[in-house]
Design brief:
377 residues, alpha+beta, 5 helices, 24 strands
Amino acid sequence: MSKRNRIILSTIIGIVLIVIGINGSSYLASKKEPPKVKAKSDTRPSVQVKEVQKATEQFDIVLEGTLNAYNKVSVFTEVPGVLEKGSAPFKVGNYFRAGDVMFKINNEEASLSLLAQKSELLSRVVGLLPDIKLDFIEQFDAWQAYVDNFDVEAPIADFPEAQSIREKSFVAARNLNTTLYSIRSAEKRLEKYTVKAPFSGVLTMTNTNIGAMVQPGQMLGEFMERGDFELVVSVLASDIKYLKKGQVASFYSEDLDASWKGRIVRISDKINPQSQTLDVYVRLGGSGLKEGLFLSGTAQSVPVDSVFVLDKALLVGQDEAFIVKDNRLEKITLDIVRISDKGILVRNIPEGTQMLAKQVSGAFEGMEVNLTNPSND
């Protein structure tokens, strides 16, 4: 075969092989399954929301303090002398009913001095009877009766009422009224030698004993009423508007494992400049209470209108939180009324706003989210 024919034959064989290869590839390709297209995944987190519905809310305000007796007095003496026993020994823990003699101070000298003043007055009035009979005959019987009924052991009685200016001047010129008032003053002073219980109670402190010499102004002890107590608690100035006189408060003692009810009776108007608190006075009573006992408790606030309670965990920073708007997170600034045991009381969020109900990991403003439960729950 010539060289030319060999070239033509090789060309034809090459073309046939190429055609066969193309057709074989097409056939094999037609038998292979087409690759699956991977669907684009949704990376937006699913969130739970809560629609804002405002309501009237109340919350607990913590009250803590130490009990003091509501009626408690320091016992002083106004006169000097030797201390004497009353209806019971003047000792801590002894009980006295209202009006019982707590103690006496020896009054022998003061009593004799008073008797002397009365006797002197009687003597002076008797000496004036002849003049009264001569100048004021119509009043003589009244003055005679005064003398007849005069008792130095009894409280001094008033003089007969003057029937004329002349009679009044007659009595005044002889200093009878001055003597009468001096005797009345001595009688009052003599009463101070006997000290009676101003109310039913118990001695909680004494610093003297029977037989001791006491001086005017000396403190002898402390006396308090049982079963009636007052608790003084400090409340932040910002919380005072949520309390009012007459509110009931509940208290508990861990030491005694007991509880009691009390009532707010007074609220101070003065703010402590250091702590910015005011004193609130709660009165309470009941068995088991003792002065000095520490109590902790709460008082429910007055109703707060038109507020929404937000979970504390949803607070962002100091005063921000996330809402969901058009499936995106959006930050809002909160008008916080108070942070309470229930949560954060907020006032400025419009009703119907969708608040996050639970925290979202990595939340940021503008994050796209899916809602799972747009409800009021």
